[in-house]
Amino acid sequence: MDKLFFIQLGMGTDLHGQNITKASVRAVQNAIHTNSMPGLRSVLPGGSLQEMKVNVKLAVPCDQDKLDVEKVKAVLPYGQVTVEITDGGMLTTSGVVLPDKDDVNDLIYVVIASVEVGL
Predict the structure, then answer these.
(1) pTM of the prediction?
(2) What are φ and ψ of residue 70, in 5° steps?
(3) How is 32-91 classified by DSSP, letter by letter?
(4) What residues form DSSP beta bridges with 87?
């Protein structure tokens, strides 16, 4: 990315089910759902949102091999999206195992996302 315009931060969790993709999707949604960038088109080549570059950084606590990157990318409606995964986030207890919620243990998965937008 040559020019960085915005960095948006978010946090997402999966309270039950230990699904790292679900927590990651929620983190990206949290980062982007309170932002509007109305002037962005004026600096993009041809005014096209598809020319925008979007880099997602995810700090995940575990199960990196189970993370469905394509589902994370699908949250972002425009641009050329890349995803970087790093160690981070948090595991904490929910205090209960709920088999009907697909729990295999009592862990809550917490993921932190940074969404960078630019050219």
Answers:
(1) 0.96
(2) -65, -35
(3) HTT---TTGGGGSGGG-GGG-EEEEEEEESS-GGG--HHHHHTT--SSEEEEEEEE--EE
(4) 60
